[in-house]
Amino acid sequence: MNIFRLAPVLSRPALLSLALLTTPLADAQTLAADALNTPLTLSVEGNSLLPEAQLQQLLQPIAPPLNMAKIRARADALQAAYREAGYGTVLVLLPEQTVERGTLRLQVVEGKLDQIYVQGNQRFERDNILHSLPGLARGQTPNLIAVDTNTQQANENPAKSTRVVFQPSDVAGRIDALVVTRERAPQQFTLGLDNSGSESTGHYRASLAYLHANLFGGDQQLGLRGEVSPDFDARSKAVSLSYLAPWYTLHSALEFTASYSDVDSKAIATPAGDALFSGRGDALGLRYRWYLPKHSAWRQKVYIGLDQRHYRNDCSVGLLGAAGCGSADASIAVRPLTLAYDAQLGTQFSANLQLVYNLLTGGADGAAADFEAMRTGAPAHYSLLRGSLAWQQALSTRDVFNWRTQFQYSRNALVPGEQFGAGGLTSVRGYQERELVADSGLLSSVEGLHALLRRDDGDAALYAAAFADGSLLLNQRHTPCRAQDSRCRIGSLGLGLRGQYQQHLQLRLDAARAYADAQRTARGDYRLHFSLAYGF
Q1: Helix (H) or strand (E) holding 429
Q2: N or C terminus of the chain: which is more exposed, having fewer CB within 10 Å?
């Protein structure tokens, strides 16, 4: 009979947290000499999480000569298997035992959840917090991958953030979960004012937005927004609606959007008489998101969406009427399918990639003839690739560097509403909004921020900004994006201010000088952009 004795390693978990745990195995107290040359079979007690086939593969018999290093390696492999499956609170123990007939017993403590404590919630009910974390269930071993994915999705709610901490329970072999929340009011109104308009449609845009971040108690979000041009008799107006329903058990969400806009331009004098332009647009969208498990420190999600956008244009030139407008009087409807991937590394880096294909054609203003009337050579079944990258790096306690880029590429001639636009406050500053458009385009911007004033509690801050923006645009079929050029470049340099007070007031002010001609901006022109938002 071959006998050797092993010391106990751990009787119960001593420390449990979201960090994945490993447990060292003790050396043998005694090891009979004849046991060194006998094959050793490993058995597992207490497992209900890993399939039996996986256990057998991991715990193949140990061939002689035996030593503690070989035993430790097998137990570590089993611990790693639990960790990779998401069960980081599971411990693999090697209890004190007498090994007979070549069999060694490993004990698994699965760390089932005993109590769940919620801390910091005042506006959101406890049931709401736990509804967003279905990976936490009393009496079950929490899967940390699932809990982390739940937390990622729950923290996209703008009115709350959630953090889960695991800690030892008073019950031996079990753990407790502490859910720490930070909140703001679920219902928010935001007043906005900016100068993103144009001379023909009014320079200013005033907006009112409403958000309910917990509509039916399950984190459903309803957003409403209205916008008018206060300096143009409100003849430029837009309204939009959005609704988001999260499904935490499926790590997914369904989003619906709808919008309508109506813009009437001022009359433009031409040799044939005054030209009058008006445009109306409506859009519907449905998108389904999947939240993927975090890879290393990267948070990921994919989505599929189907949209319908209808661009309706009216034009009249003097006595010629619509006949004097050409394609400016054409209307078009697009129904693209979008597949997209998002990745984010904390608040430092983010990336997005979208593949767009106009799937459904026909119907009112959606036939091939309508696309041809809007633009010669534009196919109804067009495709394009879009993407963006953003990077933020703190250089010191007062200085931050930002870089962002956006691109679109298409081998097709696109109708205007689907083209890449350059110019404006969030694009190339110093130019009007979407002053240049093309089928393909690249935008890049670098910006440095320096804190002029900042309260220690973060409630108020004022930053100075210096930036450089640039964009390259390229059209198919030699269609000009500026004068006679089908390949256009614009760029700018400027200075600005960023102001913030608590979570209520946001101010952005940018002054930029244009370094290339565009449609309405000449090289050397200066433009001031501003945006003001007040939330309550």
Answers
A1: none
A2: N
Answer positive or negative: Cα dihedral of 285, 291, 295, 299.
positive
**Whether residues 60 and 94 fall in one domain:** yes
Averaged pLDDT for residues 298-324: 78
Burial of 98 (0-12, 13-18, 19+ CB in 10 A): exposed
In the chain, the number of structural domains is 3
The structure tokens listed for 344 are 């984010």
- In angstroms, the Cα distances linking 141 to 18, 42, 83, 398, 488 are 13, 23, 12, 44, 59
For 29-116, where are the alpha helices, taking DSSP H only? Answer: 52-58, 68-84
What's the pLDDT at 194?
96
Count of Cβ atoms closer than 10 Å to residue 376 Cβ: 11
10 and 40 housed in the same domain: yes
On whether the CB atoms of residues 340 and 302 are closer than 8 A, the answer is yes
List, for residues 54-92, the tens digit of each pLDDT value: 998 988 888 888 888 888 899 999 999 999 999 999 999
Cα-based torsion angle of the residue sequence 452, 454, 460, 463 in order, rounded to the nearest 10 degrees: 30
Which DSSP state fits 190?
Answer: E
